[in-house]
């Protein structure tokens, strides 16, 4: 397997190459084939560390960095030069992915990127920042200057995403900035718009939904708002362009499900964690399960269709026992993690995680069995699976080729006997 993990300590990344069964915490276990520094530039440091990694159509690796930098790398790994091989300990000499370009985005140095979103029809990416600023960047021409899009009625945001089924529709939210859905541009627009002089006029956000906060709590106090993640999900009834289904997570450990056809308030409001939720990821293509991580060490999978009506219990001096429904907990991923998990990717049968405890862990998505555990030595904010296959060693390759040759010989003999009859 090959997994690229951001390195908060250096401002670059590490490419880990390993097989299933790798465990660096055990001396007698399989060890990684290589852990190599990469994506390191002269300006790389903690202040320009990578927050998001994106595979852009297997053509580019795109990294959004702290400090308003968007780095573009060639996705194809570059072979090491002969003079590099003698300097493997020098991280700056490792050039696995060729650096192609940097976009300088006009934001404050402490304005953190909260999302990096691909827009295939536009040959572009959108980068959103905590300040509420959103930029569209045309990847088809590195001379293109990032274009600022002013979100209507926007405050600080912590989440920004697009609808995978309607690429021009986005949703966002943040601290005291409740969920909003906007149409950033007309659905008929494609990448040719950037060749026209008036392309800026195309990006004019139109608010199509604005959520309303949940009702006051049992003490009749207003419930605070702080959205940390937003995901669109499909529904059989979703046929209208004005009908959307979404799930959000909050800084207060809640999951909320919205159906815009049924009003502005969430149709379901679940308390699943005591700590702030930092990542929210669908665990299946059916989008009926989610994986949640928090700021402590929780990595848990929940069902969105199976609900435990009496799972959450708390006691109030004024209201007595309070019982609320909670999505059924399908299990926790426990591999010894001791810190917040920020890097999450689900790929087919694999669930891959990395975070503050400096480990990369790969689990079987269904059984939650640890398939690999690799110590990286750096804190991570994001990860990207480059290759999920185990590379064969020479013995395995020879054995497979011998088996294939035997099978071919057997079929040849059967065909000859068939012809003789």
UniProtKB/TrEMBL annotation:
Domain of life: Eukaryota
UniProt xrefs under InterPro entries: WD40/YVTN_repeat-like_dom_sf, WD40_repeat_dom_sf, WDR74/Nsa1
Region (Disordered) location: 387-421
GO cellular component: nucleolus; preribosome, large subunit precursor
Function in brief: Involved in the biogenesis of the 60S ribosomal subunit.
Subunit and partners: Component of the pre-66S ribosomal particle.
Family named by the database record: Belongs to the NSA1 family.
Designated name of the protein: Ribosome biogenesis protein NSA1
Record organism: Candida oxycetoniae
């Amino acid at each position: 397997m090959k997994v690229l993990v951001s390195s908060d300590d250096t401002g670059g990344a590490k490419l880990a190459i390993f097989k299933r069964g790798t465990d660096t915490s055990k001396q007698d276990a399989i060890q990684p084939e290589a852990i190599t520094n990469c994506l390191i530039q002269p300006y790389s440091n903690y202040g320009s560390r990578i927050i998001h990694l994106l595979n852009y159509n297997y053509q580019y690796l795109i990294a959004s960095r702290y400090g308003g930098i968007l780095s573009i790398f060639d996705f194809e790994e570059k072979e090491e030069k002969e003079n590099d091989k003698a300097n493997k300990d020098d991280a700056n000499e490792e050039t696995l992915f060729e650096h192609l370009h940097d976009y300088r985005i006009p934001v404050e140095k402490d304005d953190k990127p909260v999302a990096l979103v691909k827009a295939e029809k536009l040959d572009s990416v959108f980068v959103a920042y905590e300040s509420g600023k959103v930029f569209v960047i045309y990847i088809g021409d590195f001379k293109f200057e990032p274009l600022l899009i002013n979100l209507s009625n926007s405050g600080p945001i912590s989440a920004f995403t697009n609808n995978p089924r309607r690429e021009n529709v986005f949703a966002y939210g943040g601290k005291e900035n409740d969920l909003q859905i906007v149409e950033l541009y007309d659905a008929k627009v494609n990448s040719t718009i950037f060749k026209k002089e008036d392309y800026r006029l195309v990006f004019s956000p139109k608010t199509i939904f604005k959520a309303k906060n949940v009702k006051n709590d049992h003490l009749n106090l207003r419930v605070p708002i702080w959205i940390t993640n937003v995901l669109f999900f499909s529904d059989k009834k979703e046929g209208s362009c004005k009908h959307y289904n979404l799930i959000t997570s909050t800084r207060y450990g809640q999951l909320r499900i919205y159906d815009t056809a049924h009003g502005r308030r969430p149709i379901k409001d679940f308390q699943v964690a005591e700590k702030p939720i930092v990542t929210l990821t669908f665990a299946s293509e059916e989008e009926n399960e989610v994986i949640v991580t928090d700021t402590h060490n929780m990595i848990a999978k929940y069902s969105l269709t199976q609900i435990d009506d009496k799972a959450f219990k708390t006691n109030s001096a004024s209201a007595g026992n309070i019982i609320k429904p909670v999505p059924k907990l399908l299990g926790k991923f426990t591999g010894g993690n001791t810190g917040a998990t920020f890097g999450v990717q689900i790929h087919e049968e694999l669930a891959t995680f990395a975070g503050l405890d400096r480990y990369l862990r790969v689990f079987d998505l269904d059984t939650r069995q640890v398939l690999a555990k690799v110590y990286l030595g750096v804190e991570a904010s994001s990860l990207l699976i480059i290759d999920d296959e185990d590379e064969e060693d020479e013995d395995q390759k020879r054995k497979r080729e011998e088996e294939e040759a035997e099978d071919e010989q057997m079929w040849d003999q059967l065909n000859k006997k068939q012809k003789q009859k």
